[in-house]
Amino acid sequence: MIKVNIKKLKGTLLQKKVWGALLKIPRGETLTYKELAKKVGKPRAIRAVANAVGANPLAPTIPCHRVVRSDGKLGGYSGRGGVKTKLALLRKEGVFR
What is the predicted pLDDT for the residue at 2? Predict the structure, then answer.
């Protein structure tokens, strides 16, 4: 797991919870936004959790690319290069071939 001091990042309490949870997603695995919302204790706040993922200030160091939509589509990626980069990162981790 990558060492990032979430407390020092600027963000809301929810954003920091979400970013901390992102760091716990193992390389080569994905979660849906819905699963992530449950993990941070906000099962009905899927959209807010997705917005927190999108506000990630340290992509891909904080691996927000490991969160996908429930329908199997990639969703967005706020890091440099957008969804193309997200797909490349997931392929590199062996998630997609």
Answer: 66
Reply yes or no on whether 64 is catalytic.
Answer: yes
CA distance 26 to 66: 9
For the entire predicted model, the pTM comes to 0.93
Tokens of 74: 């990639």
Domains located in the chain, CATH noted:
9-92 (1.10.10.10)
Label residue 26 exposed, middle or buried (CB < 10 Å: 0-12, 13-18, 19+).
Answer: exposed
The pLDDT tens digits for 1-52 are: 568 899 999 999 999 999 999 999 999 999 999 999 999 999 999 999 999 9
3-class DSSP assignment, residue 67: strand
Contacts 24+ apart (CB under 8 A), 87-92: 89/60, 89/63, 89/65, 90/30, 90/65, 90/66
pLDDT given for residue 1 in this prediction: 59
Catalytic residue among 64, 67, 68, 90: 64
